Amino acid sequence: MELAYVCEWEKRPKSTHCPSIPLVCSWSCRNLVAFTTDLKSEDDDKNVSHMIHIIDTEHPWDVFSINSGHTEVISCLEWDQSGSRLLSADGDGQIKCWSMSDHLVNSWESVLSSSLDGDPIIALSWLHNGVKLALHVEMSGSTNFGEKFSRVKFSPSLTLFGGKPMEGWLAVTVSGLVTVSLLKPGGALLTASESLCRLRGRVALADIAFTGGGNIVVAATDGSSSSPVQFYKVVVSVVSEKCRIDTELLPSLFLRCTTDPLRREKYPAVTHLKFLTRENSEQVLLCASNQNGSIVECWSLRKEGLPVNNIFQHCSPVVGEKQPTILKWRILTTTSDLERVSAVALPKLPISISNTELKFCPGLGLALAFHDGSIQILHRLSLHTMGVFYGASSAQRPGDESAIKRQRTAGPTVHFKALQFSWTSLALAGVDNHGKLHMLRVSPSMGQVLEMNTTLRHLLFLLEYCMVTGYDWWDVLLHVQPSMVHNLVEKLHEEYMRQNQALQQVLATRIVAVKASLCKLSTATAARACDFHAKLLLIAISSTLKSLLRPHVLNTPDKSPGDRLTEICAKNTDTDIDKVMLNLKTEEFVLDGPPLQSLQQLIQWVGDFVLYLLANLPNQGSMVRPGFGFMRDGASLGMLREMLVMIRIWGLLKPGCLPTFTATSDNQDSMLLLFRLLTKLWLCSRDDGAPQDPDDSLIDECCLLPSQLLVPSMDWLPVNDGVMVKLQGKHPLRLQFGKASSLPSNAPPTPLEVFNRTPGSQRMDNLRCVHMGVCPTEESKACTRCGCVTMLRSPNKTNAMKQWEQRWIKNCLCGGLWRRIPPTFT
């Protein structure tokens, strides 16, 4: 375990961020981290605003701070399962739901709220949507994704008509109330509250879990270790447009440390109560503490047979010869006396393990943070220590007496108040008692020395998991060394090619995005990252242009015009574009002028791209340049060929939409020439035959291209400004919230001249393929993952352009989230 970066607040004289008590932090599957602080103003100590801060882990300095409007300290933060909405609850019974405005990660607004006046909330959760995957680690060598990740039968907490899961949230308050708010499809909220049991008592700690049958289990304790930990079953239903809650008592347990004669009075308070996972209501983790130390216990719910007296065994009616059973909590393991625990983090990876031989794999460890600033990772069932991190302040290693003495006199040490695992359990985010955010790498081997192949296999397994679920894979990239990139990309491609056709189609763009983000990590493969991004743009443009085609007669049983175009282009190997056009029904291509004109920039990009590829064919030698990946990629070349045919037909209808080339002679038919050369190149790498090298005559013709047409310089993607590329070294980065300039700038110069931008160069809108000028005045947004930039407001209002923009309004083409970047004023 090692520190990747620390982000701290700027020291201002007037207002200070101090961690709120209780400090909460939450990490979403899109790798957004939310945490709370209190903002004090110095003039008036009473005046405290309760802030929620949201960052994306790639740009931690770009923090979005919300003045939450909560009147009391925020006690809970919870992301939903899609990672795009956040719930916050406070000590006054208010619950607010936040979501992104305009799909930007640095712009949030409160959309819904519910409140129980004056009743502090101590546990909060979204209702379960019934989606649950299981990871079979022992199958990680299998070729089929369906065997590695299987969908578990799990009922949603509440369903609408037709089995669609109903959205909403559930909270538990200090006075023993459980409250549910349901989101109706129209946007209205249905709210109801009910006490957990007939005798309402104070609840100091609670946690919520879900069962496969769609029920909810709440664990609650009054905070004293001599009282029982109670469990309740909660069933939510909607009866005649009203929400109804039924509760029922389940078996309870007493902590082992209070029944142990040696430790009976030692740990008076229960400080942490957590179910091991949200979907596992049968295993629970408890921590009891005193001023100086803690003890952690893990309990499990088991079915046990009830012994029956002999008298009854003979005369009772035999019901299937079954012995009566009862549910009982049994202790699994307990730790010895530990330092005082300040925070607990549980893994979110849904691992299902059939054999217990597996000593290490991500997601098996839970993390405990202690008051001396250290963190330990323990096995989640056996509670053996698997890894230790000594905080920056606790420099003492065990056995250093003088440091311990020094520390006692120095006042409270820096320690973590809140701790959260990422969704693949490869990273830990901790917020300390000064409000700083620490990002820790948790190695997949959990402190054991593994050979390279095992580490690679773990990382590959988790990348595939992110691909299948759609989660963000930033935390997996934390562990990828530049030397691993090539192997990972190759293996990922192999695994992908083994899946069935349908799954390949679903994951087609995701795998390209994963490969692109891997290739960025090493300077040797940076050119391939350009190719993968160009491929994403190409796939998107191709499907947009094809979707504009309309069948001439509506009730044709045939394929759609786009599919028919693909089929004809694949069969017809003619190098003359006009002969290929003869086979198509031209009436399907009739479009009005304005949509064609508005897409001219995209059409121009396709034309420029084909010209760039062909002109660079002779140069693709020892050094891999951008564009190399397309030379053997038959599918992409076929796509470009189809688009040239479409553009050629549209050019007959409206010459204004054709791509413009600067030719040396006036009677040069550029489209005809490019199509002929592209077809020859495509024939070399078609799917059915083994790929051949392009023959000399083709290379000679490509060498002549620059003398016939002016070859454009392609605008490859901007250099990513995120933190990932800077984390290659072993030293942790020190960053400041609100200051992007705090990144160390001594990065090695990139060996590729395509990436280097002169400061006065034109800025590009990478998705609309428009130049924005040297100092754009328009507000724009950038992708958190690939750094792709585009304008926030559309300069063009035609339907065809809207159709193109809808493709990337929520996420970038690579699947990353958008963040607003201010216009650059000089």
From TrEMBL:
Residues 462-650 form the Mediator of RNA polymerase II transcription subunit 16 central helical bridge domain. It comes from the Eukaryota. GO terms for cellular component: mediator complex; nucleoplasm. Residues 756-819 form the Mediator complex subunit 16 C-terminal domain. GO terms for biological process: positive regulation of DNA-templated transcription; transcription by RNA polymerase II. Signal peptide: none annotated. Residues 113-389 form the Mediator complex subunit Med16 N-terminal domain. The keyword Chaperone does not apply. It is found in: Nucleus. PROSITE patterns: WD_REPEATS_2 (PS50082), WD_REPEATS_REGION (PS50294). WD repeats lie at residues 67-101. Its main location: nucleus. Keywords: Activator, Nucleus, Repeat, Transcription, Transcription regulation, WD repeat. PANTHER family: MEDIATOR OF RNA POLYMERASE II TRANSCRIPTION SUBUNIT 16, THYROID HORMONE RECEPTOR-ASSOCIATED PROTEIN-RELATED. Belongs to the Mediator complex subunit 16 family. Component of the Mediator complex, a coactivator involved in the regulated transcription of nearly all RNA polymerase II-dependent genes. Mediator functions as a bridge to convey information from gene-specific regulatory proteins to the basal RNA polymerase II transcription machinery. Mediator is recruited to promoters by direct interactions with regulatory proteins and serves as a scaffold for the assembly of a functional preinitiation complex with RNA polymerase II and the general transcription factors. Component of the Mediator complex. This is Mediator of RNA polymerase II transcription subunit 16. It comes from Maylandia zebra. The lineage of its organism: Eukaryota, Metazoa, Chordata, Craniata, Vertebrata.
